[in-house]
C-alpha cells in the first residue's frame, strides 16, 4: 500500500515545465525535474509513475532515461543506471509529447514512487508547475489565434457589458413568458399558512423549508393548486402561474411539476426579510428536455455533491439529470449480482498484493483509500439520490457506457472469470464475460486505452446488460421512482477494435457480415431490444445512430435507418466548428431521430472558461465562457459566428438546416460536465456554474428570435444587448442568491479585467454587479478591503496593487496583481 517515506513527507520534490509549443505544430517540449529531498538513498531500479493526457515521444527523452506508456494516461519514468538515488540528487528529464501544453490542466499529475527494493509504494502528489509566461508556453502553435486571457484581454472583453439600473434587470431566471410587477409588496413569514391538496405534499414541504428561514410571525397566506394555465397553444405539464397580492399568493400549475416551477420562481422573488413584489407571472418552458450530465466515473462525486447539483438544477428548472455512472476509469453503482463491478471497478490505485484495482488515472494517486478515483453508490445511497431528484421533478437518466469506454466493467468481469475458472467453475466463469481471451486487436482509444472495448459478439454480454438493467429497474422501484430511459453510451469506439477477435470473426461469418460496423449495428439493436423487454426507452450518444457509408466515392457518416422507437433519443456532441459534423444533430433530426443537443463547443462545461493557464479544464472543443452557452441557438447554430478551437472563422462547406419536422424532434439541450478534471466538489461547482444557468436560460426561456434578424450587424447588436441584460441578472440578482444558505453554491467568480491608462488603473468585471475589492499594501483582497468604484491613480509607494472579484460571502476569484515599478 502507498505510504510516506518512513512516515515523513514525500521524499521526492517534483517540478514540471512546458518549454515550448512552437517547435512543431503537433508536439511540445517539456522538462521534468525530480529531486531526492530525504536523507535516505532510494534503492536502484526505482520507477516513478505519473498520469498525463499528453503521450510522450520515446525518441525525444533525455538519454539515460525512459518514459514508457503503460495504458490510458498512466506513464512511468525510469533511469537506465543501476545506482541508488542519493539524497540531494536530481534527475532532470527533457522530452517531447503530442499536441501542446498551455495550462496547469496539461501538466502531469499524481506521481508515485515504486522503489527498486520492493519497498512500499510512496505517493508523491502533484508537481510544482512552473508558470506559463512566454509566448511559446501560452500558445499552441504559430497559427493559434485565440488570445491569451490576461488581465488586459479580460478588460477589453468586459467592456462589452455595462452596469444596468436594477429596474432594467429581470427578476426571474430563466426569463418567464410574462412577468408584471407593481410597487406593492407581499410579506411572507415563517408562520405563513400554506393551503394545498395531498397531491402537492412534496411541493408544500419544499416551500415550508423555504419559509422556515424567514423571520417569525404570521405573514400572507399561500395557496398551492393544480389548474389550467391560460396560454396560447398547449401549455404543457410544467406551465405555472404566480398571482401575488399583498395578502395572498397563489401558485398554480398545470400539474404538480408546474406548481414546483412556480415555487422556484417565487423563491427568486423572495427577499431575506420575506418581502415579495406584488405582480403576476405566467410561464412555460420552450423545450421539454432540459438536462445536465455529470460524469462520476473519472472522479467519484459523493451523494451530497450530487444532491447539491440537483438543488442548483431545480432552482433554474432543469428537469433531466444524466448520470454518467461508468467509464474506463470507474464503475460507480453497486450491482448485487455482480459485486466485482464495484469491488474492482470502483477502486483506483496501487492496492495491496492480491487485491485487484484499476490503475490511477487523472492524478488520482496510488492510495486506493484516499483516491478521488475510488468510490461508489450502494443501493441505499442511489435510491436516496433518486428520491431527492424525484421530489424536485428531475428525472435521473442513468448511463452505462458501452461497448467502448467500458474498461472498468471489462476488467471487473475478467477478474470474475479468472477467479471462477481457477475454482473449476468454467460455466459460471463465462456467464458474464465481456472480453475475448483470444482477442489480439490493436487499437488505442482517444484516452490512450488499449483494452477498453467489450467483445460484442459474446452472448454473455447480453446477459450482463440484462442483469444490470434488471437491477437498476429494481432500484428505481425500491425508490418509488419511475425509470423510463437508460443511456447506453456508445461513443468513441476506437478504430481497430474487434478486428483481432476470433469470437467476433466467427459471429460475422455466421451472419454473412463483412464489416465490423455491421457487428456494431447489431449490438446497438440488441441493446434496444433488451431495454424494450424491460419497458424502457433507449438513449445513446450520436455514434449509435450513425453508419459509415460511401457516398460519391468518399466515406461519410450518415443517419442509420433504424430509429429505435418513438421514445428513444440520441445525444449529439461532436459538432464543433471545423469538424465537418456541425450539422450532425440536424441531419439526425431530419431523418427521424429525437435529438438532445449536447454541443461540445457551447455546452461542454468541462472545457476551460478561458485561455488562461490557471483555468481548469480541457479546451479541445474551444474555450467555453458563460456567454458561449447563453448565445447557443438550438435551432440554427449558424447565426452566431462559428470559430474552431484555434480561433479561426469557419463556414461549413455543407450545412443541412432543420426542416419543420426535424425542428419538432429537437427534444432539448443538455450541458455536459465530464469528470477528468473534477477531483472535488469545489471543482465540480466551479465548472458547472454559472454556465449551468445560461444553459437553463436557453432551454427554458422563449426563443429570443435572433435568427429572424437578417442583417448580421443588427443581429450581433441584439445578441450583445440580450447578453448584457443576462450578465447583469447574474451579477446583480442570481449569483448573490446562490451565496445564501443552505445551498451556498461554489460557482466560478470571474477574475477582474485590469489595464493601466494615463497613469490610472481601470478595472472591470464580466458580470456587472459583482463586487471588486482591492488592496495597495500587497495583501490579498478580502470582504473588508476597499471596493473598487473608479480608476485609481498609481502611487509609487504601493508595494503592489491587488484586486479580485468577491461574492457576498467573501469568496474570492483569482487575484490580479499590478506592481507600480512595472508602469512605463
TrEMBL record:
**What protein name is recorded for this chain?**
beta-N-acetylhexosaminidase
The entry's keywords: Glycosidase, Hydrolase
Q: Which reaction does it catalyse?
A: Hydrolysis of terminal non-reducing N-acetyl-D-hexosamine residues in N-acetyl-beta-D-hexosaminides
Q: Its family?
A: Belongs to the glycosyl hydrolase 20 family.
Q: Which InterPro entries match?
A: Beta_hexosaminidase_sua/sub (IPR025705), CBM2/CBM3_carb-bd_dom_sf (IPR008965), CBM2_carb-bd_dom_sf (IPR012291), CHB/HEX_N_dom (IPR004866), CHB_C_dom (IPR004867), GH (IPR017853), Glyco_hydro_20_cat (IPR015883), Hex-like_dom2 (IPR029018)
Q: Which PANTHER family match?
A: BETA-HEXOSAMINIDASE, BETA-N-ACETYLHEXOSAMINIDASE
EC top class, as a word = hydrolase
Give every Chitobiase/beta-hexosaminidases N-terminal domain span: 13-153
Q: Which Pfam families match?
A: CHB_HEX (PF03173), CHB_HEX_C (PF03174), Glyco_hydro_20 (PF00728), Glyco_hydro_20b (PF02838)
EC number per UniProt: 3.2.1.52
Give the lineage: Bacteria, Pseudomonadati, Pseudomonadota, Betaproteobacteria, Burkholderiales
Q: Which domain of life is it from?
A: Bacteria
